[in-house]
Structures are given as structure tokens and as C-alpha cells.
Design brief:
alpha+beta; Dna Ligase, domain 1; 3 domains
Length: about 300
């Protein structure tokens, strides 16, 4: 097979591992800088060009699109889909998962467990918004934030009011969530491929920190997940329409709750922690499912 990887940096661990895994299984694979592609958008023959040449003959495309280039990256991926190339994750599913508010609304509609979450526009509604999520302590999140950036834990209602007023004054889009204290600064990253959780790890925040992201200094360890957690992760990925997803779950007193569904989960942490060859499993998924003009928007919304 001829496979394209949309990635800004061929030296990234995840990109390198996917190239190694594809080549080991006899495929031809090319890393394409998402922002260096340009498109001819026509009804009879859509095409993509890269560094002066037209890209043709690809059987599958693996999107490794960073959050900062979601708009352009999704447009490039959509163009591949129009050309009949099989995407590991579809463009609609990626844009759906990248919109934090929309993704939570979709998960809520399908009955997936979530932390109590509030969203408001006017500073006049702040007191009621705070009480809606159960009061302090609570978590405030920027909708555009990634890797734990733009996430604030407010210990008191006074602090929450001040932070919310500041964010609203800057015209930032924010949401407010209940703080799941019983999780103890830990979450579970479940890697879903197809309809299975193929690997899972526990991420623990460092001392004095509540964000468990590995980019924030968190540590990772092996964990055995429950059937309910497994089912929640698979359902969350399915609601988003993602074939491959990193689903972040918290263990709360009322069962597993989904914090986020990531459409481009990093491979380094999960491969190192679990010892599983995740990259090869992703290539095998492509081998099994790649067909021309297979793109369909799975899930609604």
C-alpha cells in the first residue's frame, strides 16, 4: 500500500514509529508537511499538490494534525477523502473532537458519563454557573487549550469568580467543570482502535499539580481497567466517529467520566508504559479497512 502521513515534523516519536511500522510491513509511506500542501478544489478532479508535484496513488492517509493547524489540516484531509483515499480518522470526526464544547454535548446526548459542566457568556451569570457545577473547588478550562494549558483549578468561589471575570473580559471561550477530587490527580488514557481498547495507562499528576498530562510532568504507569471503563472509552470514540482515539477517563464516585477524546493521541507514552507495539496495530487497522471511497461520517452532529 501507499500511505501518506500528514505531520509537520517527521522527527516526532509518533510519526517515526508509524513510518517504521509501515515499512516493516512492506508499505510505501511518505511524511507530508500539512501546511506545505495546496489544493485544486474542482468538482471533476480534486487534487493535492506538495512542493511542486501532484500527490497521486495513495491508498490511505494518517492524519497527525496538531491542534494549532486543525482548520487547514482538516481541509487537506477532506481533499484526500474527496480523492477516494481512506483516512485513518475522518476530517469531520477530527473537527468534532477538537471542539471541546461540541464533543461534550454529543457525548452527553448519547448518555456517556461526564463531569458536571457549565458554559456561559455573561459575567452576570457567574454565581449561578458556579453553583450549577457544585461550587468550589472547580475547574475552569479554555476551550482552545491543549495539553493542560489553559486549565485552572479554583479552590474557592471567590477565586473562581475572579478567574471567570478575567477570562470573560478577554472574550475567551471557557467552560466550568466540577472537580473530581476522588480521582486524586490521576486519569486513565485508553487508546481505542476500531471497537477495542488496545492499551491503557494511568497518568498521575506530580506533587502540587492537578493536571496529569505527561507534558506537565505527570508520570505514567500500567493499569487494569474495568469492563465499564472499557465500554465507556469505546462508546466515546464511536460517538465522535473516530477509528483511533485517546480517551481520557476519570474514576469518580458515580462511575467513569470522560474528560476528553483526543483524535491524534501520542504514541510515546502509551508504547513506553505498556510495551505494546501500537504503531503496528494502527497499520494493521489500515490494512484491514482501507478501501477506495470508504469515507463516511460516522455518528451524528
Amino acid at each position: 500500500m501507499k500511505i501518506a502521513i500528514l505531520s509537520r515534523n517527521p522527527r516526532l516519536y509518533s510519526t517515526r514509529r508509524l513510518v517504521e511500522a509501515a515499512e516493516a510491513r512492506g508499505h510505501e509511506i511518505h511524511v507530508i508537511d500539512t501546511l506545505r500542501t495546496y489544493m485544486n478544489i474542482t468538482s471533476h478532479k480534486p487534487s493535492i499538490h506538495y512542493k511542486g508535484e501532484e500527490l497521486t496513488g495513495y491508498d490511505a492517509v494518517i492524519p497527525r494534525i496538531g491542534a494549532s493547524v486543525t482548520f487547514y489540516g482538516a481541509a487537506v484531509l477532506r481533499q484526500f477523502e474527496m480523492m477516494g483515499v481512506y483516512p485513518l480518522n475522518e476530517s469531520v470526526a477530527i473537527t468534532r473532537s477538537r471542539d471541546k464544547l461540541r464533543s461534550l454535548q454529543l457525548l452527553s446526548r448519547r448518555g456517556v458519563g461526564l463531569p458536571v459542566t457549565g458554559f456561559a457568556h455573561s459575567p452576570d451569570d457567574i454565581p449561578d454557573l458556579i453553583s450549577m457545577v457544585g461550587g468550589a473547588p472547580l475547574v475552569i478550562k479554555l476551550l482552545e487549550g491543549t495539553q493542560g494549558i489553559g486549565v485552572v483549578l479554583c479552590e474557592t468561589e471567590k477565586a473562581a469568580e475572579s478567574v471567570l471575570e478575567a477570562f470573560m473580559g478577554l472574550k475567551a471561550n471557557i467552560m466550568v467543570q466540577e472537580y473530581i477530587k476522588e480521582a486524586g490527580g490521576a486519569d486513565i488514557r485508553c487508546l481505542v482502535v476500531g471497537d477495542k481498547v488496545i492499551a491503557a495507562m494511568k497518568r498521575q499528576a506530580k506533587a502540587g499539580e492537578f493536571r496529569s498530562n505527561l507534558h506537565r510532568g505527570g508520570s505514567a504507569s500500567l493499569i487494569k481497567i474495568t469492563p465499564e471503563e472499557r465500554m465507556t472509552a469505546v462508546r466515546a470514540a464511536k460517538v465522535m466517529g473516530l477509528n483511533v482515539a485517546g480517551v481520557d477517563i476519570l474514576r469518580s464516585n458515580h462511575g467513569p467520566v470522560v474528560m476528553e477524546v483526543n483524535s491524534s493521541p501520542g504514541l510515546e507514552g502509551i508504547e513506553t508504559t505498556t510495551g505494546k507495539d501500537v504503531a503496528t496495530l494502527l497499520i494493521q487497522h489500515i490494512e484491514k479497512n482501507a478501501r477506495p471511497h470508504q469515507t463516511r461520517t460516522r455518528g451524528r452532529g
